[in-house]
Amino acid sequence: MDIAGLSVVMAQSEVRANAGVALMDKVMNMADQQGSQLANMLGESTESASHPTLGKTIDIHI
């Protein structure tokens, strides 16, 4: 393989690696945001319960 071909292959490999890292960074940021939103939703749901025993039991008939 000549030097020009090797250079092209190395550049493509670097671009793929950079794209993978950028994608992983976006995925991690999104997961962090979703986790904090979920924590906020769970905190709000327990604070605003209108009836203290509502949702505590389930009636099941088989």
UniProtKB/TrEMBL annotation:
<protein>
    <submittedName>
        <fullName>Putative motility protein</fullName>
    </submittedName>
</protein>
<dbReference type="Pfam" id="PF14070">
    <property type="entry name" value="YjfB_motility"/>
</dbReference>
<dbReference type="InterPro" id="IPR025906">
    <property type="entry name" value="YjfB_motility"/>
</dbReference>
